[in-house]
Design goal:
It is a single chain. Helices cover 38% and strands 16% of the residues. It is of the alpha/beta class. It folds into two domains: 135 residues, Aspartate Aminotransferase, domain 1 (Alpha-Beta Complex), CATH 3.90.1150; 273 residues, 3-Layer(aba) Sandwich (Aspartate Aminotransferase, domain 2), CATH 3.40.640.10. The strands form three sheets. It has a seven-stranded mixed β-sheet, sandwiched between helices. A four-stranded mixed β-sheet has the order 1-2-3-13. A four-stranded antiparallel β-sheet has the order 11-12-15-14. Helix 3 packs antiparallel against helix 12 and helix 14 packs parallel to helix 16. 48% of the residues are buried. It binds pyridoxal-5'-phosphate.
Length: 434
């Protein structure tokens, strides 16, 4: 069927009626570009949905998936294993910081989050502290769309029709436009005070009831908010003082976005549990992985004498095709030096930063912020959707976040792509605010 009806596909996070009136169809992708159904090339400044960090259509990844499909297309993972899953776990544990040596596979970021939350509960339960059932998330945090994730998340639209079914409270978000607007890299002001708000929440709820704090090192879908200096370190200290686990949701930050494999390495703060997905397979196969500290794993293992220790898992956990995609993706990241390409002081990150910040002073622009190769431009009105649509017409894909547009380009980005982006963005902003 070359021209299928658009009626039957209920599209996720999409204005369905709007899309169906004016569809934007992607039919191919290569390197930094999409190909559309009307044969246009569109520059991808979002790495798909923050996931195609090595760019599109990498032949090594494609071949690995095809080979695996011929060799072992599926393997049940409850009570059975296949070697690639163990090989990949070793590789991820080696890559991850500190004692994050235990790898649990999921199929998405949302599932990684649910898994991490359950691990935290299981850990406390195993240690005789089953009263620790409450989670602290953060305003504007995004942790996927399952019931746990929307409860700890802090984006109202994501839960207002569905409820918040986990016991939660939330830290304030870390945006401070008055003091930190137009920050390049980490914002300088307010980090310690913002983190100290956690102490207030602990006094309110009591540490004996709190299982974990879950935050993104850099808040992504909530607006691209790099952590102010000292914030993450202070959150870690307070968690340690009160026996509270710290979960870093690195579904966006992981796999090179901040100049190291993981943001916890860039910012030198060690979480107890880390969620990943997206860049793990370069978006080429659905897969997530939760990396748990040895102490978390050991506590859960030691609590049961025999039988299943952790009553959790997915039919497609450690799917062979996804494992093959992940192994090949890690090869590409390593061989092409892509983790380092996101280094905040590196040439391309600096060029990207300078290019974007040159838009300061344009009408409607109230903030430009970035850490390395993740950035947002914020407006004084909800201009994101309109600017995204205009940019698309001019050959550029951006992500709209309401009052802002976000960028997280593939790490293979070159200077010419930055120049093109800045040029189109400037035209679109001037057109919108004229
Ligand atoms: C930080 C974070 N956590 C979780 C998710 C959910 O991932 P998925 O859409 O794969 O379920 C996302 C998706 O953008 C994310 O940014």
């Amino acid at each position: 069927m070359n021209n299928p009806s658009l009626n039957t596909h209920w599209m996720p996070f999409t204005p369905n009626k709007g899309f169906k009136a004016s569809p934007r169809m992607l039919t191919g992708a290569k390197g930094m570009h999409w190909i559309t159904d009307d044969n246009r090339q569109v520059l991808d400044m979002t790495a798909g949905l923050w996931c195609c960090n090595a760019g599109h259509g990498n032949p090594h990844i494609a071949e690995a998936i095809a080979r695996q499909a011929r060799e072992l297309d599926y393997a049940p993972c409850f009570g059975f294993g296949h070697p690639l899953a163990f090989e990949l776990s070793e590789r991820l544990a080696h890559l991850a910081p500190g004692n994050l040596n235990r790898v649990f596979y999921t199929n998405s970021g949302s599932e990684s989050v649910e898994t991490a939350l359950k691990m935290a509960l299981a850990y406390h339960h195993a240690r005789g502290e089953a009263g620790r059932q409450l989670f602290i998330g953060r305003e504007r945090g995004y942790h996927g769309v399952n019931f746990g994730g929307i409860a700890v998340g802090g984006i109202t639209n994501n839960y207002k029709a569905f409820g918040q079914w986990l016991p939660t409270d939330h830290l304030s978000h870390t945006q401070d436009l008055r003091r930190n607007a137009f920050s390049r890299g980490l914002p300088l002001h307010g980090g310690i005070d913002m983190a100290n708000e956690l102490e207030k929440l602990i006094r309110l709820h009591d540490a004996s009831r709190i299982a974990a704090v879950i935050i993104e090192p850099i808040s992504g879908a909530g607006g691209v908010l790099p952590p102010p200096v000292g914030y993450l370190q202070r959150i870690r200290e307070i968690c340690d003082q009160h026996g509270i686990l710290l979960i870093f949701d690195e579904v966006i930050c992981g796999f090179g976005r901040t100049g190291e494999a993981f943001a916890s390495q860039t910012f030198q703060v060690q979480p107890d549990i880390m969620t990943t997905a997206k860049g793990l397979t370069n978006g080429a196969a659905p897969m997530g992985a939760v990396l748990a500290g040895d102490h978390v794993y050991d506590a859960v293992m030691e609590a049961s004498a025999s039988g299943v220790e952790f009553f959790h898992g997915y039919t497609y956990s450690a799917h062979p095709l996804a494992c093959a995609a992940a192994m090949a993706t890690l090869d590409v990241y390593e061989q092409d030096g892509l983790y380092q390409r996101g280094d905040a002081d590196g040439e391309i990150s600096q060029y990207f930063e300078r290019g974007l910040h040159s838009l300061k002073g344009l009408p409607g622009v109230i903030d430009i912020r970035n850490y390395s190769l993740i950035a947002a431009v914020e407006f004084d009105a909800p201009a994101g959707t309109d600017i995204q649509a205009m940019a698309w017409e001019q050959g550029l894909m951006l992500r709209s976040l309401g009052n802002a547009i976000a960028m997280s380009p593939p790490l293979i980005l070159e200077k010419e792509h930055v120049d093109q982006t800045v040029g189109i963005l400037e035209r679109c902003i001037r057109q919108h605010f004229k």
